[in-house]
Fold each of these.
Amino acid sequence: DQQVKQNSPSLSVQEGRISILNCDYTNSMFDYFLWYKKYPAEGPTFLISISSIKDKNEDGRFTVFLNKSAKHLSLHIVPSQPGDSAVYFCAASAGSASKIIFGSGTRLSIRP
Amino acid sequence: GAGVSQSPSNKVTEKGKDVELRCDPISGHTALYWYRQSLGQGLEFLIYFQGNSAPDKSGLPSDRFSAERTGGSVSTLTIQRTQQEDSAVYLCVSSPSGGAPRGPDTQYFGPGTRLTVL
């Protein structure tokens, strides 16, 4: 039972354009959502997060949108840069002391 | 030590053998997670240690898997009678206060141990 789903295993975007990575979840108890970025041969690193009391959080080129009614969140990267090429994991947790559940990841490739 | 370390970095074993994977978290971090990533799959939660509380073992896939955290620091993940489906990268995560991070740089992933079961 996948509680956090990333239905697109890969995405290719032209440099300078917007990258949109999508994530769906099923557990209505999730109250905190995170995005991680992973380069090959490295562990994932935290990118950006959002609490369920918000619907948008922005940090530089990265913005996360949360639609609780649709149980959907998305990560927008604009403008996309070559260094953004990586695997992006969506994750969620329910409560401040609970474990984090990850999605399967989306491989983003930024083409020149 | 600057970060989370894991050993070995690679382990090849024969089906049926036992393996031990080690994680050295960041000193002072109270929370430690084990995840694994199989080929083409996401990060699968295995077990979560938080301070002196009983660990959350809900993600362990079978009773062949067990984990310990000694003295609130080093953790060992043991897989008994390994099977080919156990082949994956096993990741250890260290966090200063546990739960979901409320900001950047509060959750630290180790480099992982790549386990291959022949």
Amino acid sequence: DTAVSQTPKYLVTQMGNDKSIKCEQNLGHDTMYWYKQDSKKFLKIMFSYNNKELIINETVPNRFSPKSPDKAHLNLHINSLELGDSAVYFCASSQGHRDSYFGPGTRLTVT
Amino acid sequence: SQELEQSPQSLIVQEGKNLTINCTSSKTLYGLYWYKQKYGEGLIFLMMLQKGGEEKSHEKITAKLDEKKQQSSLHITASQPSHAGIYLCGADLNDYKLSFGAGTTVTVRA
């Protein structure tokens, strides 16, 4: 059973398009995160979502919007994609002060 | 990740004592990142190592990458309550994305 799953694993799209990445966790965790892995493979937090409270990182462009239809899902919508959005995006979940479980990552390529 | 093993899973230390966390891979580590998790805020970057034998320190935390570049350790000297938390290693295995250890929960008792 996959604890944290992301779809798609790879996404290639053109500039200006709108796309979504889906994340689901079956661990019953109350907190979910989106991270962006930059070109140097550093992880940067984008959003965290805890029991319907969204904590937004101010450095994230407003073209990025997380949406959580329920506690087990936190999807990432990206509008008007730009070349600089190309990266690997990781979803993660955690319960309280416990370990984070990471999804497999989504490699987004914007052409 | 089965490619990366982090140990121990959890540990409890008395305040003032030292502790060590290990991250081991069967593959060459092209980069090793240590993070500390802050609840609700995600991962906080601590240190990154790339060269075999490299060692970096920040305040009372020291991270090392062995000569063979397959194992890294994170060492905390004279632990304090502020060191409590979850530590996670992330590895660059020459893939396009990081691979993660399972995390180590550190409890510091006064």
